[in-house]
Design brief:
By secondary structure, the protein is mainly alpha-helical. It has eleven helices and nine strands. The protein binds 2-acetamido-2-deoxy-beta-D-glucopyranose (8 copies) and copper (II) ion.
Length: 422
């Protein structure tokens, strides 16, 4: 299997190195040369950057494997254990159905918490949601944002395999493929190989994004309304009961019959349907190939790369960044900063965020293993800078292990990651 991947991959690498480009363009300018706008907008440039990152990953892997003079590398990641994460629509229908079945299995397994500690947590799946809710204010707009979510997606993927027997490729969702019509995406077409449909449409105002508490106060950003707003109406999660959230009243598209959990009781039980409000305007504005490619090409430092990816209001206004872009292309529950993982799409969205992060790292891996920022949301309340010795905490009982940020830097480092993206 590995050799199949390798040969497919080498085709890309050969193709990619034949095209010269400026690997380290300065901030604020798209590279000239052969990177023209139409190649960026089609996703071709992103694919080339991915090939370069994969080439660098395989080089590291080979070096690590060689060191031990054995077949197995000292790091636990070697060519025969390396896995390739794939875009949802490239999985076979059988793999997509078994992935959905594994998610539904996690949703039926018992919680890792005592009910009194987390009243809204009814399943193992909810336990994953709860740890995100519980830590929201220390894992967003902080130094640990990218690595925490990398570790979270990886741990969820392990749980799908060890607890629920999933054995196919780990999927991610490249939203840029769907910006013209998210409703027609293989992610949301309502078929049994999707995550269910858009929400039921009700007439509502356009989206308005206001600065969250703690962030600099900036003018609201507004745009066109989404195409749903209510409960999803077709497909696998149509009858699924969400137990947690939403919390973030201001950002959530308001609608009939929505109740919120109070910010003083974040893990309260609040059963409701899964809501979506697919939004082409958000997708085209903030989740295009131009956006994901620009963030990789334009920023040399983790400070600026992360800030623009997150749409950090201390650095940039009038954009959600690709992180917010993917969240609000789906909207509904997936638009809630705290409880967005209630929508299983979350893990494929963050897979793509991790893909963009690893592509960016892979353009200059030696110099892109740092972090930037403090330990609290928008540094509110003020906190110290994070360091690579900090631990990434998951609060998932024996489903998780001790993990320092420094060990989350390399997706092929074997500590414990061992994957690349196709
Ligand atoms: C843009 O770049 C692509 C890839 O390098 C190339 O195939 C294409 O011809 C270029 N298009 C224009 C209009 O220059
Ligand atoms: C790894 O070892 C192989 C076989 O000994 C050698 O051909 C290759 O150049 C080495 N690669 C690196 C990156 O050291
Ligand atoms: C929430 O976080 C606190 C503080 O870190 C921790 O003590 C508690 O166990 C966490 N609860 C859940 C449900 O994760
Ligand atoms: C959802 O529940 C309704 C009512 O019980 C049922 O008719 C429908 O088939 C279910 N849909 C799915 C996709 O399970
Ligand atoms: C809101 O709830 C009422 C009463 O249960 C129901 O009749 C109505 O259809 C609901 N509206 C939406 C948009 O779900
Ligand atoms: C592409 O993205 C860059 C950076 O966000 C932006 O300045 C530029 O206007 C965008 N170009 C197009 C054609 O959308
Ligand atoms: C935190 O990092 C910033 C940016 O690198 C630096 O200016 C500041 O001095 C650091 N603060 C502390 C307490 O080390
Ligand atoms: C983890 O905890 C569950 C119960 O919460 C238990 O069934 C399982 O055996 C434990 N696994 C390990 C490896 O300790
Ligand atoms: Cu998050």
């Amino acid at each position: 299997m590995w050799f199949l991947y390798l040969s497919l991959y080498l085709v890309w690498v050969t193709f990619a190195i034949a095209i010269p480009f400026n690997a380290h363009p300065s901030k604020g300018s798209l590279p000239d040369g052969l990177y023209n706008q139409s190649a960026i907008d089609s996703g071709e440039v992103l694919q080339h950057l991915l090939s370069r990152a994969n080439e660098a990953s395989l080089e590291r892997l080979t070096r690590a494997t060689n060191k031990t003079d054995k077949l197995e590398s000292s790091t636990g990641c070697n060519p025969s254990t390396l896995t390739v994460r794939r875009e949802w629509r490239t999985l076979s229908s059988d793999n997509r159905r078994s992935y959905i079945a594994a998610v539904q299995c996690l949703q039926s397994k018992p919680s890792v918490y005592e009910p009194k500690d987390a009243p809204g947590v009814k399943s193992l799946y909810d336990s994953f949601v709860a740890t995100h809710i519980n830590q929201t204010l220390v894992i967003h707009n902080t130094a640990s944002f990218l690595t925490w979510h990398r570790f979270y997606v990886w741990t969820y993927d392990q749980a799908l395999r060890t607890e629920c027997g999933y054995a196919g490729p780990t999927p991610y969702w490249d939203w840029s493929l769907d910006i013209d019509s998210p409703r027609d995406s293989p992610m949301f077409d309502g078929s049994d190989t999707s995550f269910g449909s858009d929400g039921k449409y009700f007439e509502h105002e356009g989206v308005i994004f206001t600065s969250p508490p703690g962030a600099p106060s900036t003018p609201p950003l507004s745009g066109e309304p989404g195409t749903g707003g209510g409960c999803i109406f077709k497909g696998p999660f149509v009858n699924y009961t969400v137990n947690l959230g939403p919390v973030n009243e201001k950002q959530f598209p308001n609608g009939p019959n929505i109740t919120y959990v109070p910010s003083t009781d974040l893990l309260a039980y609040n059963p409701h349907c899964l809501r979506r409000d697919l939004n082409p305007w958000v997708a085209q504005s903030f989740a295009s190939f131009n956006q994901s490619t620009s963030v990789i090409l334009e920023y040399d430092t983790i400070e600026y790369f992360q800030a623009f990816l997150e749409g950090d209001l201390r650095y940039v206004q009038g954009t959600l960044g690709i992180h917010g872009g993917g969240h609000f292309t789906v909207g509904g529950d997936h638009g809630d900063t705290f409880s967005s993982p209630v929508d299983p799409v979350f893990f494929l969205h963050h897979g793509n965020i991790d893909r963009v992060y690893s592509i960016w790292q892979g353009q200059n891996f030696e110099n892109r293993q740092g972090i930037f920022g403090t330990r609290t949301f928008y540094n509110s309340p003020p906190s110290d800078n994070g360091t690579v010795d900090d631990y990434l905490t998951l609060q998932l009982g024996n489903l998780t292990k001790k993990m320092q940020i420094r060990d989350a830097m390399d997706t092929v480092g074997g500590t414990p990651f061992c994957y690349i993206y196709a």
